[in-house]
Amino acid sequence: MKSKPKASIDVTVYVDDMRAAYGRMKMCHMIADSTDELLAMADTIGVNREWLQKPGHWQEHFDIALSKRALAVNAGAVEVSMMDLGRILRRRKPARATA
Fold first, then answer.
1. What predicted TM-score, i.e. pTM, was given to this entire model?
2. Which of 2, 19, 20, 64 is most buried, judged by most C-beta within 10 A?
3. Per-residue pLDDT reduced to its tens digit, 45-72
């Protein structure tokens, strides 16, 4: 009896188009569908894992310099607007408990 192929799960890393000044740098956000994928991309582009913002929270992300953003895009990250990134994050937000 043949076994069914396992369904593949697409995991994606996203970078937004924010250009926030931080000293002499311009920064943007990087998020992913999973913490593992986010950390793997951080490793790939040379971002220190200790710079992870809000670890374990639905708003988990990295603030990265535009030079790192370019590396992330080259490594397969999807470019999205700040608005789209916000929508992605809000979908993760836990529903409020009803009283």
1. 0.84
2. 64
3. 999 999 999 999 999 999 999 999 999 9
